[in-house]
Amino acid sequence: MKKSLFLSALIFLSCEWPFETTSTDEDSLFNVSISHEITRIVDSAAVEISWSGITIEDFSHFIIERKSATEIEWKKRTVISNPAITFYTDMVNDDTTFYYRVGISDINENIRWGKDSTTIPLTKALFVPDDYDNIQSAYSTPITDDGDSIIVSPGEYTGSLGLLGKNVVVKSTHGFTETFIIADNYSRCVNINKGVLQGFLITGGAPTGNTASGGGVYASGSAILKNNCISNNIAPRQGGGAYITGNVSLYNNVFHSNTGALIGGILISNGSGNIINNTFADNDFAGVAIDNQSSVIFINNVIANHFYFDLLVENSTQSTIAYNRFKESNNQNDNISNDPLFVSPGLIPCLDYRLSDFSPCIDAGHPDIKYNDLDGSRNDMGAFGGLEGL
Question: Is the overall model pTM greater than 0.70, yes or no?
């Protein structure tokens, strides 16, 4: 008798146990439910899928499938052949709505389905390095969506950064004096076509290839660069500091000590954005070039200390060039050519291009109050003027 009980127990525990029993009434509900305790997802988190313990004749397996709110096709998560199991723990890696279905299948692949869904709370900001070690990983995770932010603490972040396809704000907490994006001397520092990049020192960019323009930054689409220092980058072609195309805008950036084949600062080609309150100084050979396909708003900028030219506009009547400092200005359209009288050029990177108290660029920017400095006074030309001055 004891031997018979032992064999029965052994068969019950075996994975080959033939699950043959009276099937549950076909009218019985096959309920699926999902639960989780997620309040903020950073990388991945667990959700629990459970289902009612119904049985069918000639049971074969359970199938668990999932799709997100942005997916059309169901994706198989697992197959469970033990009929006694009625739960599964799944790992999710996005802050979206997930749909689950659980199927109970017989040996002839007749399947009865139960469904449920759950919504993961939105994570609106990720922190580097607390949540992710580097900026690229925080940007690339599916958790980061349009409208989100990546907040970056001080430090050196090496390697080329690709900010492509998401309308995300990538912002440092302490500005470019403490937060650095450093390329590996074989690639460009930043490629960006959407969103905002704010508050970084961008340096060491040197893309390979004789046709490469934009040593520090290649900006296209609707990208915005704000409050950055772009310094000591090299391009085999033009725009050692940056190559700008599309509806890209620059606000309160400093470009200095960059090198290109001719234009060390920036080349704007087929651009249509706002270039407002920036400083371009001491770049090799030349400062800024705007081609004749561009229609940019170029105001309140300081361009100085270039051997060849400060600003070259290629017969472009579509661009607005006013209230700037550059040596070729001939004092037309409220542009000036006076020495900008920087505080201490060459001593403190980027910050040395602040204006001295005697600078002719002080209170010389556009008089509209929307461009006023933080203290309410008329706009000072250059990266340190305006409401978002450095």
Answer: yes
